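Worked example 3. Consider a protein that binds magnesium ion.
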Amino acid sequence: MQLVANIIIAASTILLVGLGFALIYRVVRFFHFAHGVVFTSGPYAAFLLTTRLGLPLAISIPIAVVISAALGATMELAVYRPLRRKGSSPLVLLMASLGIYVLLQNTISLAFGDDTKSIRPNTISEGIRVFGAVITPVQLLTVAISIGLLAAMIVFFRQSIMGKALRAVANDPVLANISGIDSDRVIFWTFVIGSALAGIAGIMVAMDVDMTPNMGMNALMMAVVAVIVGGVGSMPGLILGAVLLSAAQQLSSWFLGSQWQEPMAFAVLLVFLLFRPQGFLGKRVKNASI
Amino acid sequence: MLKSLRHIFNRCTNNVLTIERLKSGYGKKQVLFDVSLDVKEREIVAIIGPNGCGKSTLLKTICGVIPAWKGDIDFNGHRINNATPAQNVCRGITFAPQGSRVFDELSVAENLEIGGFHLSEKQRRSRTDEILQLFPVLERRLQQEAGRLSGGEQQMLALARVLIPSPKLLMLDEPSLGLAPGLVEEIFAKIAEINSQTGVSILIVEQRVRAVLALSHRVCSLKLGKVALFGNAAELGEDSEKLKQLFL
Ligand SMILES: Nc1ncnc2c1ncn2[C@@H]1O[C@H](COP(=O)(O)OP(=O)(O)OP(=O)(O)O)[C@@H](O)[C@H]1O
Ligand SMILES: [Mg+2]
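Given these inputs, the predicted complex is written out as structure tokens:
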């Protein structure tokens, strides 16, 4: 039972990061590596606000999420958009993104130090027993928040005109452009939403197991594996991918030891790349042109 | 000075679209060489010509997906050479590109909503209701994924989508492409119906020359990116010798 609980908890943060990453990947069509540092920015912003300004967590967390969203949006406005204007290829965007990642991770490292920082609520709370598994309140909250956000995203994509425009741009960017959709505006909101999701995920992870400047790398890699395993562009696929990946990780750390978590994730990735490159439920991404 | 006078002049005529000495292409490759033509209110103008002569390039340049190099594109007295597709949609030019292009992952209803992206929620809904009257086939399939429609239905959807913003000029690139003969007649009949009911001007590129000539008021024939003939459609329809020449 504890194993199942661990799988669900791990899957829910992978899901949040993966959702944002996949969203940006689908709409803008490049590998947004710096998504990892957006993830890290959430908890560090919350840390700064609580320790330096003395704000209570309940206030500093929402502000930190806004800061993460603004950070992602700034990357788009200051770097990616000018690059796209120049007609840069997705590879150039990836390199730029990698550059941003390294730059910002090191900035965080210099500003806060490489040691572990904590925003854990300092009253050590008792684990709650749920169906025979011990879960901390933070973990329970993590699962609840990611289910809630997932539902909110589904409603956003299905019901709002912005959500539909986002799907239209992902489906056929050229036709969306011809139909009068301002793709820059859509891309901007994609970054805002995706980055907010990453910031929230980062905060949830930090409240559970503390933060280090390089925490984003691992989170991003797990999210990418889940996205590829699930099939790019499929929401049910992503959920399945996140669950499968965290199941593989938790099972291997349960039976083989926790040092097996990461190798296992990449083993899963390799198996999928070799035998089912389009993922569980994914469709082949087509190249649209006119 | 002269230029602005000309735009004022264009506003006084009943021209919806006036193109003068338009040059355009891709990268360094020039495709259009001094193309001039005009479209009047309520008029259907056909664009014909052999493969690769620049028909699609002309429509793409007008709608703003590729930039005009030189010349003048005037829409209702406004110079729109540098307008983006989004600006043109707001002004009243919509474009259905070649190859029954619909958003295949979106439902039929969502495709129509995207067509009215810049409208208010209320306008979008009332326009959709109006347009659906013209397309009963779509009304029955609103929740279906557009990718699952047949070729003919997708073409109808593409047509319905570009009608949502109440355009003054509709540009259609080979709406009959890949359709069975019976469906070709159906779509042409629908285009004629739209033109007579709404009064929208239509610029239509077609390979099915006889059918499109029967539908159009005037015709512009392109050859290697130049206008080879611009004149009455019915007259050209009767002159098989000339037609043959234009496609040599
Ligand atoms: N995206 C593009 N990049 C570079 N060259 C292009 C592009 N699209 C078309 N061309 C070239 O421009 C020329 C005109 O193409 P265009 O598509 O306008 O022809 P068309 O008259 O529409 O032909 P068809 O009847 O086959 O649709 C052709 O020589 C074509 O190879
Ligand atoms: Mg063409």
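Take a moment to read the result before moving on. Chain B has eleven helices and ten strands. The first helix of chain B runs from residue 2 to 12.
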